[in-house]
Amino acid sequence: xxKTVLRKYAQLIxxxxxxxxxxxxxxxxxxxxxxxFVKMLVEECYRVGAGKVIVYWDYQPLEKIxxxxxxxxxxxxxxxxxxxxxxxxxxKLPCRIYLVSEDPDGLKGVNQEKMNKAMQKRFPIIKxxxxxxxxxxxxxxxxxPGEKWAKKVFPGLPKGKAIEKLWExxxxxxxxxxxxxxxxxxxxxxxxxxxxxxxxxxxDKLIYxxxxxxxxxxxxxxxxxxxxxxxxxxxxxxxxxxxPTEECFISPKRGIAEGIVYATKPLSYQGQLxxxxxxxxxxxxxxxxxxxKNEELLKKMISMDEGAAYLGECALVPVNSPIxxxxxxxxxxxxxxxxxxxxxxxxxxxxSIKDFDKxxxxxxxxxxxxxxxxxxxxxxxxxxxxIDAVTRDGKTVPIFxxxxxxx
Length: 407
Prior knowledge:
There is one protein chain. By secondary structure, the protein is of the alpha+beta class. It has 13 helices and 19 strands. Strands 5, 6, 10, 11, 12, 13, 17, 18 and 19 form a 9-stranded antiparallel β-sheet that branches. The chain has a 4-stranded parallel β-sheet with strand order 2-1-3-4. Strand 11 (267-269) and strand 12 form a beta hairpin. The chain starts with a helix and ends with a strand. The model has no long low-confidence stretch (mean pLDDT 96).
C-alpha cells in the first residue's frame, strides 16, 4: 500500500477521529501487526499538536499463555500501579486510539471460565474510574490488517496479497480518498440529517420483522435521541469514535424488549467466533439463546453481570452501505456492524439522553440506560428485514423496508 495513502489515513484518525487538542496526551492501543503504520500515526499525532503519545502493544499468543499459566487470583488482581494509571487517565483525559487487527480466532482454546472470572473480579475496581471518564474524552476505533485476520477474510490468497486486499477494503470503507476530511464532513452531515428526522418522530417503540424469523420489539426512553457519526465530548470537543461508521444508533429503555432475533453474521467475542445464533427476549432480558457454534460462550457472555442480558443499543444501518456492498464478511465487529442493523447487549450510552450533559451518569441510568461491564454488538440486518416505528401519538411509521431506509 502506498505510503502517501496510509499517511492520509493516519491524518484522518488523528485529526477527524480523536481530534487531538494542543498538548493533549494520546494513548494508542494496538497489536504487533503494523508497526510502520503505528509509527506513522504517532508522528501524525505529534504533527497536529499532541504533547505526549504512548503506545501499548498487545499480542494474542502471549495473552493465551498468561491465561494458561496464571491463577484466577493473579489474573484478577488490579495492581496499585494500574490504579495509578487509571487515576492519571481520569485527571488528564488523554485521547484513546484503538487499532484493531487481531485474529478473529486468536483466543480459540483459551480457558473461558478463567478469563470470565478474572474480568468479573477486576471490573468492580475499574468501573469507578471508567464512570468518571464516561463521555469526557475523545476516542476512536480504527483498523489495520493483521496477517491472520487478512487470511480469514481472503483465505484463497497468499499472505502478502491478502494483507494488501484487506488494506484496500479498510481504506475504501473508511472513505480514505483524495480528501478524506471533506468526505467525512459530508458523511457526518448525512448521518446527522437522518438522526434529526428519526428524532422528530417521537418514537416510543421499534418493531422488527424479518423473513428469517426475526420478530421483535423494543421500547425507547422518552427523552432519548438517535446519534450517528461525530460526537461532542463533555469537554466540548467534536470527534469521530468509529472509523468507519454507517449507523444511526440509540440506547433503548432497559426492561422493554420482547421477541426473538436471528443473527445474520458471525460474532467475534473474546477471540472466538459465535455463529448461527438467535436470542429471545422477555421483559427486556435475553432469556434463551441458541447457537450452531460456541453456544456456551454466548451463554457466558449474557451472564457476565446483571446488565449483560439487557440491551444497550439499537443501531440502524442500510444493506447498501459501502461495507455491505463490498460483499466481504470482515469477522470484525467494527466493520460487520456497519454492514447491517445491529443490537448490542450490555452497557448503553448516556449520551443517548437529550441534553445528557445536564444529568449525572446515575441519573441517565435511572431514565433507562443499561449498565454493564460488556458492550457487545451483534448483527441482525439483511435484505429481508423491515422495521417500523410506533410513535408516542400512536402512528406507525416505516423506517426500513427490505433492509434499507424507507425515507
